[in-house]
């Protein structure tokens, strides 16, 4: 959990620093931080509650319901992964 929340805190710091710099690379870093954080928020708002609902069900019922949720969960998780990767790349490569 430290890594998961730590990267969100670090991204926030990078975003604030980028906005404070107010130059092109700083704004790219801030945009990357915002993109990264949007993926983090998507995970917290959508995937985690869905995971918790699924975990609360008896195993047989969870297995029966998973096909109904799989497409939405996978789409959200893929979106989160893309936002995180592109956001991190922008923060790292901004010059």
| Shape by Cα distribution | elongated
User: Rg, please?
Assistant: 17 Å
**Beta fraction of the residues?**
under 5%
Q: Catalogue the unreliable spans.
A: none
**Please, what is the oligomeric state?**
single chain
Helix and strand succession? HHH
| Class inferred from helices and paired strands | mainly alpha
Largest beta-sheet characterization = none
Q: What is the count of β-strands? A: 0
Helical run tally:
3
Query: Number of folding domains?
Result: 1
Rounded mean pLDDT score: 94
Instruction: Assign a percent range to the helix content.
Output: over 70%
User: End-to-end distance, in Å?
Assistant: 31 Å
Pfam families: Anthrone_oxy
Transmembrane segments: 31-48
Protein name: Integral membrane protein
Keywords: Membrane, Transmembrane, Transmembrane helix
